[in-house]
Amino acid sequence: MADLKINESKCTGCKNCIKTCPTEALYMNGNVASVEEEKCILCGMCLDSCPYEAISAEKKKCKITEPGDYSGVWVFAEQQAGKVHPVSFELLGKGRELADKRNSQLTAVLLGYKLDNHHKELIAHGADRVIFCDNVQLQKLHDEYYFNTMDQILQKETPEIFLYGATAFGRSLAPRIAASLQTGLTADCTQLEIDESSGCLYQTRPAFGGNLMATIVCPEHRPQMATVRPGVMKALEADYERTGRCEEVEYMDNRRKSTEIIDEIIEETAETISDASIIVSAGRGIGSQKNMTLVKRLADLLGGQVGVSRPLVDTGWSEYRHQIGQTGAAVAPKLLITCGVSGAIQHLAGISGAKTIIAINNDPEAPIFSIANYKVVGDCVEVLKKLIAEIENKQN
After folding, report:
1. How many CB atoms lie within 10 A of CB 61?
2. DSSP assignment of 339-383, as one string?
3. Does a cis peptide bond (omega within 30 degrees of 0) precede residue 223?
4. For 247-279, how does the pLDDT look when each residue is reduced to its tens digit (9 = 90+)?
C-alpha cells in the first residue's frame, strides 16, 4: 500500500499533475497542489508528470493480522439475471467441508436485486448463514457497486476464509476485496485443503504453464482468499430441511464510482461446453485434423459436444471455445470420452468434475488412465470407427 505525498517546498503550482490525474483527485490549495485521498487510486501518472519531483508515493508495510481473531468460511454467491451461478453451490460444497474441519460457520454472501428464494437455496446447499443485500443498484454486475457494499460488510466481519468463483465477475471483484483487506489472493485454484489445527488454507493451482502444481499459503494475513474455477468442486445435494440464519444489510452508496453501466445487452447463447452432460474430447493422439470428423460424429450420436486439449487449438484443428483445461473450460459432464488425450496436469484440472470417464489411448502409461473409470488401450481412431459403427447399427 502507499500514500501520495506532495512536497510543498518543491511544488511550483504548475498544475501539470492536475491535468494528468484521471480521477480528479488533485486540486490547487492556494499556490500548491493537494490530494483528495478518497479519489486517488495511486495510478502513479502524476509522479511522472511532475518536472520538479514534488510528488512521491510513500509505501506502507501491510499489517500482519492475528489468525486467531478470524473464524468462519465465507462464499461469495454470485447471481445474475435471477439465477445463482452454479459455481456458488460448488463452493458451498467445498466450504462446508472446510468449515466442518474447523468447527466453524459457513456463510454465503448474496448481493443483487429481487433475490426471491435464493437464500433458501444457499442454505439447502450447505450454508449456515446468508448475508444478503437486495437493491436495484445491484441488479447489474458492477464491481464498484458490489465492492462498496462488500467492503462495508467486511469492516465489521472477520472471516478466516473467503472463496469466489473464478468467473469474469469474480476475477474482477475478488482482487479489489483482497487489496482493501491487505491480504493475499490465489487465483484459479483446483484444490483446497486445510490444516485443522492452525486453519492454514493450502491453495493448489497449476503453475508454469500447467507443468507443475503449486500449493500457496497465506500464513500471516486473513482472510485467506481464493478463486475457484467453475466445474472443479462438487456441490452438495440440496437438503431443503436444513435451517439457517438470514441477515439483511443496507446497500452502501457513499463512495465515488469511476464508471457507470448505461445499458446491458445479454445475447442468447447456445449450450456451452461447460454445460454439456456428454463430451467427446480429442487430444494430440487423434492424429490429424480430418479425424476430428469422427469425434464430431460420435458426439452427435450421443447428443453431446466436442472438447479438445490445448495442442489442438494451438495447431488450428479446433476453436478455443472447445478447449478444456486450466487455460480453457472446466467441465463436469455425466460422461466424458477422451480420444488420444494424454492427460497433462493442466488438462486434468479441467475434467476433475466429470462423473464417468472413458479414456482411449495407445499408451498404457498415459496419465489420463489414472483418473479414468474405463480404460481402452488402443488406436483411438480405430476404436472410434468401431464405436460409431456399433451405435449406428443399433439406431438403424
Report:
1. 7
2. ES----HHHHHHHTT-SEEEEEES-TT-GGGGT-SEEEES-HHHH
3. yes
4. 888 887 665 566 666 666 655 555 678 888 999
Question: 376: domain CATH number?
Answer: 3.40.50.1220
pTM, two decimal places: 0.64
49: domain CATH number is 3.30.70.20
Portion of the chain with pLDDT greater than 90, in percent: 34
**Helix (H) / strand (E) containing 193:** strand 191-194
161-165 vs 224-228, strand pairing mode: parallel
Q: What nine digits make up the cell of 327? A: 487455460
CA 326 to CA 121: how far, in whole Å?
29
Find the angle CA(80)-CA(188)-CA(169) to the nearest 5 degrees.
25
Tell me if 95 sits within 8 A of 126, measured CB to CB.
Answer: yes
For the CA atoms of 307, 309, 314, 318, what is the dihedral angle to 10 degrees? -20
Give me the mean pLDDT over the 183-187 stretch: 90
Tally the domains of the chain: 3
DSSP β-bridge partners for residue 106? 73
d(CA 238, CA 101): 20
Alpha-carbon distance 369 to 374, whole Å? 8
**C-alpha triplet 277, 204, 101: angle, nearest 5°:** 90
224-228 vs 185-189, strand pairing mode: parallel
